[in-house]
Automatic annotation (TrEMBL), chain A:
Domain of life: Bacteria
Top EC class of this enzyme: transferase
Organism: Mesorhizobium escarrei
Recorded GO MF terms: alpha-D-ribose 1-methylphosphonate 5-triphosphate synthase activity; lyase activity
Name of the protein described by the UniProt record: Carbon-phosphorus lyase core complex subunit PhnG
Keywords: Lyase, Transferase
From TrEMBL, chain B:
Keywords: Lyase, Transferase
Gene Ontology MF: a single term: lyase activity
The name this protein goes by in its record: Carbon-phosphorus lyase core complex subunit PhnI
Enzyme class at the top of the EC tree: transferase
Gene encoding the protein: phnI
Enzyme Commission no: 2.7.8.37
Lineage of the species this protein comes from: Bacteria, Pseudomonadati, Pseudomonadota, Alphaproteobacteria, Hyphomicrobiales
InterPro entries in the record: PhnI
Length: 153, 369
């Protein structure tokens, strides 16, 4: 049971990561295409605030504060009772609200599959493509050192 | 007696209207959109985010337009905006080892795991103005190269395996990172607080100080162990969820400076300076790392002989919003202050003249006798 719970949490976290990384425009477009319900009771927000970003001294040492970033959060409750949350960088309130609803819908076992296939999977695919493209563009600038052999022997 | 002088409201209102007009400029030229600034003046946006100490591209772009391109004014606007928002918390510390790297170079190792990735750099350009950019021609898509995803350990981790370099900086186990946005500066300060101040410090000021260390004022023989730029993921612990909630990614620049070795009783090891800033800015990250190392002078028993080693001097003057506030306030009305000084100087001159006259009268009398 504990293993199952941990797996559920990891999956839910991955869903929230996908939603946070995606643009509001992409979420809205897929939401409309999927015909997902956008009604939910707002328990909190959407509201914008700050988080303080932490780094580590030397990259892996003690933490220190680097600076702030804007974050928008929302909490919603569905008529069926599930409570969903979103925290995402930026100030996009519509995105935060929809992402919180998506988190709530995902927790409903009868809806999870629909949310996964119509919203999360396409968002994940788009993010993976963008990441792969960036990696490949950077890889093209990798230095291939070679040695010039000079002289007879 | 205090007399309030009023007036100037109409002049101020008209001046602000004139500012708005000049900001917009020639109406036959299209107005800038924020997405144009975010996309095409990205490094200016990054500087405003770094020194404004607020990661939000659109807000930084808005600040740049509102400030007519005056970067310090833009940074000031961003800092002011920050104070209007509630704080949700402190993120978990970012892992730069897991960065989606867009540039990574090392000046200490030619061949290192992950390789040298030049990325979108100005290095090796000829610094010739490009008339084609002025004409606004099409730009080709960048090349792509298929490659296996490769781990890219930090260079400091490679050196650490042989014990050749001091470890990443540690603080006592129960140390809570200091926060200069919450507590006033106190000297001497811990390294974590210094790094926070340096990360939002003025690029020009830190650059000049870093340069001064290279020219011999607190020389510490730096090598760029590594500079890396790319996106790192942020996570925040919140009470309503049993796991750290992912927030998305921010782009940062990290510099690992490898410096002069220390040790005789202990086995000699290279020392280090560290730089970490928002956005793409390796000049700032490198300058920060040079200053971080210089400011560790007392930690290594070095004599504090140069400006870059003087913590109170560096940290008290690194913030350009504070600096511009105090310098620029000089142009605001100081009528009463100045009136007082005027009175004082007049009185002193009168006293001076009286003394002179008395002296001359004395001389004359003596001469007559």
């Amino acid at each position: 049971m504990r293993g199952q719970e941990a797996r559920d949490q990891a999956e839910r976290k991955a869903v929230m990561a996908t939603l946070a990384q995606s643009t509001g425009d992409d979420i809205v477009r897929l939401w409309k295409e999927a015909g997902l319900p956008s009604e939910a009771e707002l328990l909190r927000g959407p509201e914008t605030g700050l988080v303080t970003v932490r780094g580590r001294i030397g990259g892996g040492g003690a933490p220190f504060n680097v600076g702030e970033a804007t974050v928008t959060r929302a909490t919603v409750r569905l008529a069926s009772g599930e409570v969903g949350h979103c925290y995402a960088l930026g100030r996009d309130k519509q995105k935060a609200k929809l992402a919180a609803i998506a988190d709530a819908l995902w927790q409903d076992p009868t809806r999870r599959n629909e949310v996964e296939t119509k919203l999360i999977a396409p968002l994940q695919a788009a993010l993976a493509r963008a990441r792969e493209r960036r990696r490949a563009e950077t890889a093209a600038t990798k230095v291939d050192f070679f040695t010039m052999v000079r002289g007879e022997d | 007696m205090y007399v309030a002088v009023k007036g100037g409201e109409a002049a101020i209102a008209n001046a602000h209207a004139l500012l708005a007009d000049r900001r917009r400029g020639d109406r036959s030229v299209p107005a800038l959109r924020l997405d144009q600034i975010v996309e095409q003046l990205a490094l200016g946006v990054d500087r405003v985010m770094s020194e404004g100490s607020l990661y939000d591209r659109e807000l930084a772009a808005l600040a740049i337009v509102q400030a007519r391109g005056d970067m310090i004014e833009a940074i000031f606007l961003v800092r002011a905006y920050r104070t209007t928002l509630p704080r949700f918390g402190y993120t978990k510390a970012i892992d730069t080892g897991a960065m989606l790297v867009e540039r990574r170079v090392s000046a200490t190792y030619k061949d290192l795991p992950g390789g040298q990735l030049l990325g979108p750099t100005f290095d090796y350009t000829h610094r010739l103005l490009d008339p084609e950019l002025a004409a606004g021609g099409d730009v080709a898509e960048p090349l792509q190269r298929a490659s296996e995803a490769e781990a890219m350990p930090r260079v400091s981790a490679i050196l650490a395996r042989e014990g050749l370099i001091e470890p990443d900086g540690d603080m006592p186990q129960d140390h809570i990172p200091g926060d200069i946005t919450r507590e006033p500066l106190e000297f001497p300060m811990a390294r974590d607080i210094r790094l926070q101040a340096l990360s939002r410090g003025d690029e020009g000021f830190l650059l000049a100080l870093g340069y001064s260390t290279q020219r011999g004022y607190a020389r510490n023989h730096p090598f760029v162990g590594e500079v890396r730029i790319g996106e790192v993921e942020l996570e925040l612990d919140v009470p309503e969820l049993p796991f750290a909630v992912p927030l998305g990614s921010v782009r940062v620049t990290e510099c690992q400076m490898v410096n002069q070795f220390k040790g005789s009783a202990k086995a000699p090891q290279f020392t280090r300076g560290y730089g970490l800033v928002f956005g793409q800015s390796e000049r700032k990250a490198m300058a920060m790392a040079l200053c971080d190392r210089a400011l560790r002078a007392t930690e290594f028993g070095e004599d504090v002989v140069a400006a870059a080693q003087d913590e109170e001097f560096v940290i008290s003057h690194s913030d350009n919003v504070q600096a511009t506030g105090f310098v620029e306030h000089l142009k605001l009305p100081h009528y009463v202050d100045f009136q007082a000084e005027l009175d004082l100087v007049r009185r002193m001159r009168a006293e001076h003249d009286a003394r002179e006259n008395a002296g001359r009268a004395e001389e004359k009398r003596e001469a007559a006798e």
